[in-house]
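Fold these two proteins, one after the other.
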Amino acid sequence: MADSSSVEKGAFAQDSPVSHASSALHPPFDHAAERQLLRKLDFRILPTLWILYLVNFIDRANIGNAKIQGMEKELNLIGQRFNVCVWVFSLSYLVAGIPLQIAFKKYGPKSLCVMMLAWGICVIGCGLVKRWEQLVVCRLLEGMAEAAYISGAAYLIGAYYTKAEYLTRFVFFCTAGILAGAINGFLSSLIAKMDGTAGYGAWRWIFIIEGCITIFSSIACWPVVPPFPEDSSFLSPEDKTLMLARVKADGGHVADDDISFKKALHYLKDWKIWTGVAMNLGVTENANSLANFQPTILKGLGYTATQAQVHSIPVYVVGAIFSVVFAYMSEYLQRRYYFYILGWAVLASGLTVEIVHPENPKVRYMGMFFIACGCYLAMPISIIWVSINTGSGYKRAVAIAAIINFGTAGAFVSSNVFMFKESPRFHTGFSTGLGLACMGALAATITWLGCKQENKGRDQKRAELPEVSDESLKELGDEHPDFRFAL
């Protein structure tokens, strides 16, 4: 059991749920005032970021919808050319993710709108290309502009909420990306009716119209994107004082932190960041497969292009509901590992169905639901679990960026193992996805056991130290003797 003065700054090492109020480092905040504050934050922080992420994911995944609406034929996407257009997007995440996340932390949340404007222009460019090589360039630039949006939004959400409130808020944010898949199918089926308008094929209009929506959204949301907590002006003085006290006590966001290349490299030496990358990669590869190849897979089940777009909608809706329900349970019980494994088990079940490839297409369609549910539960847990275990300020920002952007490297794999010569079985693609999912489960187990062992060691050392430490929690972060890792 953890000492009464030992705080995780979010969770203790013991097997019972966390009691934040018991920590000597946490002021005794008024619970009624906190509930009122949380309602205000929920209505002010989350909706804007949710809408922007909805647009973000539509832009990211629309290439799969455009492919079956004539892009493949018009741009002569033979062999693995389409796959190249998909994986080059992930390459840009690796190149630009961490640098842009540091820029976000330095220049503030409104930088997200600038990034969004840039990628909206690139999306329109995808609809105007004449050759497949030009599409590759546009997708590369689009990915670079998008690279810090999810990690930036994840950091911003964590800056306002305590670690015990973080996961459900981030999962709600992630439902925008999940539902974007459903909206993408519906929107693409409507835009497909514009085929031939102004001499452009339906696939071009998908890019052009959705790119214009992105540009409009980036401009419209500029005034309402929330700043960092210390600069917020949407709360009353009393609420702001309470909010800042909670932020300070929780230790997730540091306003006056500084960064250097040397410090960033030092942060990346933390083993938990890299097990987090493996956890995220194991499920993100399958999520990317779902986003980029589901229309093609569904078309292979015998549906027309329009029917395939429409049948993708229920898959995403069920995945969103599943992730929200079980993420809430994970946060309520303060259990991350168990629910990541639950997500893995559901995902593995769906992948097994697709690998076996039963004759009944309805059974294979059911497998898509399992894949979506498993991915969309395990993916946010992998991000938030590690981020709350990596201290505060720039270290948390770098950790989130590394997990998301290196984890997105899964798209490198998915875009090259879903070979169209294997359509509609895609045996290699689904088998690879199952292998990576098992790698993620192993990484989660290592994280759980490692953090448990570190907590035990800190409990033993803490008993030998003064009851009140002179060392600064702000400076030491997760290296502080009172810090305990979430399990």
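Now the second one:
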Amino acid sequence: MATVDYDSSADPEMDLTSDEELEREAEGFKEQGNVYYVKKDYAEAFNFYTKAIDLCPKNASYYGNRAATLMMLSRYREALEDSQQAVRLDDTFMKGHMREGKCHLLLGNAMAATRCFQKVQELEPESSQVQQELKNAESILEFERLAEISFEKRDFRMVVFCMDRALESASACHRFKVLKAECLALLGRYPEAQSVASDILRMDSTNGDALYVRGLCLYYEDCIDKAVQFFVQALRMAPDHEKARLACRNAKALKAKKEEGNKAFKEGSFEEAYDLYSEALTIDPNNIKTNAKLYCNRATVGSKLNKLEQAIEDCTKAIKLDETYIKAYLRRAQCYMDTEQYEEAVRDYEKVYQTEKTKEHKNLLKNAQLELKKSKRKDYYKVLGVDKNATEDEIKKAYRKRALMHHPDRHSGASAEVQKEEEKKFKEVGEAFTVLSDPKKKSRYDSGHDLEDDDMNMDFDANNIFKAFFGGPGGFSFEGNSSSGPGNFFFQFG
């Protein structure tokens, strides 16, 4: 009699029993996952939901539960995949659609989120939660639209504002964070921009946009070599990243042109250096810190070329770009000193000394204050029309010329107003000569002291000074004449 092999796997009743056992075991894992979820032990909850899925991979609720757990762990992309799998298995699974929409929203895809929430609305028309989520999605789309317009207008503050509002609902959106970071960099808020970009790179080290922003911050902080490294890395991760390509090109061009200008300056080719710095300034108007240095460099060249007013203007532009730029204040202050704008020089040196209280800065300030004080007195050198380094003979010759020019008797026929003005100038000439021809008085005057405060005899009689200077054989002789006009002198040529 033939023996028949019995295949137990073909027994339908045993297959049914096996499936039921798997489902019961899976339900057990799901219940354990629920317990851990309530305890907020999301890592353990995730493990048990995963075990349930492994046993019953076609149960939509298991994927939905694991998606909820992943959302609590901030693993939104994985949560999105589980939510999508859940609704593929059961298109009527309302919680699955809601979680998919929430994941899309958190990741910044408001359009996809809207479609999911509309599906929820079909399944549960009275849901107040879905109404709010639809409003959130609509708000994000509006902030995106406004941010795009503002970026084109270079209103970077508005872009930051829009992205902050959008991130309230889309907290996991790297795209919004990168745009915010880029605008923070363009506003000169580099530490904030670096912080945002670094947070993204900690989660995704290959994010080309975040690498670009890191490079942009370094570029704008004048760390050009390091910036280029980040731009190159960004292009390696995203070869079509046009912003990184442009920034890399600008960085290299700016560095090269600046170095050419520095080389020309060191070689004494000031005109060439001036032109090179001017060319460098046209490369990237957004690079505030480097452009501030370029303006200051050009101001230094300008002062060498005696373009002092242009140099002052360049320093002012540098300071406008970077209010903390001490070198620009010092350069402008020196130009103010050279053009005898002492009040402005004092103001700049005060700013410098308040920032950096060094002995050198203190001395510069004191010197500017002294020159300011001196400038408010009569400038006896200007009165005589001589240089501050004039010799004794030059001072005498100048006095002779000016005294004869302004002597009242020479203007006796002029109007009363002219006579009064010439008499005043005649007295000033005598006063200037008295001080500058006396070594002691001249020394005190040159050092900025008020001669009247030093108990020095500062009583001037211009006529007596004139008579003493011109009196004697071969000179001019004067005779009193009450009708001869102011000063009661008249010329009698011998």
